[in-house]
Specification:
single chain, 107 residues, 3 helices
């Protein structure tokens, strides 16, 4: 699996987790309403689920930011490959971070 496919899989999994948690929250609220119980019943669970959705949404935002960065890197790498015959180790480290050792294509 390449980077793009893994990114799409991660984004899909994150969206499925948000949707699942939202359904759980809705089901819990529906159950309370069917019981005709007071709003204080299960409120802690409602708050915890709402917080979970908020955190999952923040995770989604971080994935989208990573996706944008990877798109930028891809564009720079493709441009360097087309225009200059490749990306130098020095340039790759600027883009990817000093701690990264760029991988070289094997012919």
């Amino acid at each position: 699996m390449n980077v793009a496919e893994q990114m799409w899989e991660s984004e899909r999994a994150n969206d499925l987790a948000i949707a699942s948690t939202a359904r759980l929250l809705a089901t819990a609220l529906d159950a309370r309403l069917q019981l005709r119980a007071g709003a204080c019943i299960g409120h802690g669970a409602v708050e915890a689920l709402a917080k979970t959705i908020s955190q999952q949404t923040a995770s989604r935002r971080a994935l989208l930011e990573a996706h944008d960065v990877l798109n930028d890197i891809k564009g720079i790498a493709v441009s360097a490959e087309e225009d200059f015959g490749g990306l130098s180790d020095k340039d790759a480290k600027k883009i990817l971070g000093a701690h990264v050792t760029p991988l070289r294509r094997v012919s």
